[in-house]
Amino acid sequence: MATASARRHSAPPARLATLPADEIPFLHPETDFYDEQANQISKTIDEEIKRDSARRKDASRREVKVMLLGQAESGKSTLQKQFQLYYASKSLERERPSWRPIVHFNTIKAVRHILDELDLDLTRVTTGKSAEGSDASQEGVSAIRARLLPLIALEDTLASELSGGLAVGGGRAGVYVRAGWQSLVTATRSWPIGDTSRASQKAQVAANMAAKALFTLRRDISALWQHPAVKRLISLRHLKLEESGVFFLNSITRISEPDYIPMTEDILNVRVQTLGVIEHHFAINMGGISYDWRLYDVGGARGQRHAWIPYFEDATAIIFLAPISAFDQYLEEDGRTNRIDDSLKLFTAICSNKLLKSAHLVLLLNKTDLLKQKLQAGLKVKKYIVSYGDRPNRYEDVSEYFRAHFLQVHKRKDVGGRHLFVHFTSMLDIAATQRIIVAVGEAIIRSHIAKIGLL
Ligand SMILES: Nc1nc2c(ncn2[C@@H]2O[C@H](COP(=O)(O)OP(=O)(O)OP(=O)(O)O)[C@@H](O)[C@H]2O)c(=O)[nH]1
Ligand SMILES: [Mg+2]
């Protein structure tokens, strides 16, 4: 391992470093003394390289890279939060205040959506296009609307500031998050792009204005939410709010309190779109060994899916989430594609992707709580999925029908001859999800060990 220049030096190697370049003595080859020293050094270096390589190999064997995949709103980030809650609850605790403006944003967005639908309803009634409606049911709405206008005016600014000045997709206001987004509203870490302090200050100003407006107008929001015209629109299914909107409107008094800090349940209910790929680290102990668990949470909308590919080759496992409550919903990015159909196509692409052929596969059929609610409310699956035919419109039959379709995709398209772990989940149910997280974590680590050999 001795280098050519070192072998020609007659002085003991330790002196070399202390000599200025122009005083380096003439080098005599074939010095016994030097050869012995050089061999010793060479041996030591070789051993160190071997040890380093063993350490690296060991570390890479303990590294478990798990990707959360699935369409937008399938519940990937919610699952990531559940992992964080279980394996790194202190970090979730620290982030708690940064979720407050996002809870407020979700609420303002829902209020704006209600007012838009009431507007549309009035137009339908006045143009004679609605047989069911009556503008009498909107009595009092215009006064509430006038008072709520300053709150609604904050929606776009808040969305833009919370997203770090990003405007994605155009049209509907939304909040998009990338790695490190919490620093924008907590000012504890630096935002990775642009003028960090200014971005953070602007986001905090917008967040404070929204918090004040929500507190001042909380009774009007409540009155709007309880209004018979709104109830009528919901029962006619003209008004379909995001789940987070319903949850926060039901909690308006609590979340608009000046000293409000989001509870874990609030954090799980929040809706923000993920941009790109966000990496999270956890240490998971199994059998006395600590595994470096890396979770990759991705943006699931169609325009985001290209960003997944660079991570495929290294993935130890894929957890694919399919929201089976979405049988009556269509993609936001393509209003003609049924969400279940999109999930099945995406799952087909994942099962048949050669880059992923050695990754373990876990399928979570998510949002079972919402599926139950929709079926109980009388929504008919066959109206949206014709092939469901005259099967019973019960939870057991519907969930089994969807499960069978995903299993069939796996059977036909899987390139790796892999086992598929399948679970029904309701990601907002903390106790049930934590049990599944432990089971899934152990199954993935066990398969990983089986593949790479015992540590
Ligand atoms: N009722 C119910 N809501 C859920 C469930 N899982 C997730 N949600 C809600 O669905 C919404 C979307 O969840 P996210 O975790 O943000 O979805 P995502 O897959 O990360 O979406 P993108 O980041 O856009 O790809 C959030 O408001 C969650 O609270 C579930 O099992 N039941
Ligand atoms: Mg997400």
Give a description of the structure.
- The protein is α/β, with parallel strands linked by helices and 455 residues long.
- The chain folds into three domains: 11-52; 64-94 and 275-452, 3-Layer(aba) Sandwich (Rossmann fold); 96-269, no CATH class.
- Helix content is 51%, strand content 11%.
- The protein contains 20 helices and eight strands.
- The strands form two sheets. The protein has a six-stranded mixed sheet, with helices on both faces. A two-stranded parallel ribbon has the order 2-3.
- α4 (76-87) packs across α5, α6 packs across α13 and α16 (339-351) packs parallel to α19.
- The longest helix is centred in the first third of the chain and has 31 residues, at 32-62.
- The radius of gyration is 29 Å and the shape is globular.
- It starts with a helix and ends with a helix.
- Residues 1-14, 167-171 and 187-195 have low confidence and may be disordered.
- Bound molecules: guanosine-5'-triphosphate and magnesium ion (MG).
- Magnesium ion binds next to α4.
Structure in a nutshell:
This protein is α/β, with parallel strands linked by helices and 455 residues long. It is 51% helix and 11% strand. The chain starts with a helix and ends with a helix.
Give the topology:
Layout: H1 4-7, H2 13-16, H3 32-62, E1 63-69, H4 76-87, H5 89-95, H6 100-126, H7 141-152, H8 155-162, E2 176-177, H9 183-186, H10 196-216, H11 218-226, H12 228-235, H13 243-250, H14 252-255, H15 264-269, E3 273-274, E4 277-286, E5 289-298, E6 317-323, H16 339-351, E7 360-366, H17 368-376, H18 381-384, H19 395-413, E8 420-424, H20 430-452
Parallel strand pairs: 1-5, 1-6, 2-3, 6-7, 7-8
Antiparallel strand pairs: 4-5
Helix pairs in contact: 4-5, 4-20, 6-8, 6-10, 6-13, 7-11, 8-10, 16-19
Bound molecules: guanosine-5'-triphosphate and magnesium ion (MG).
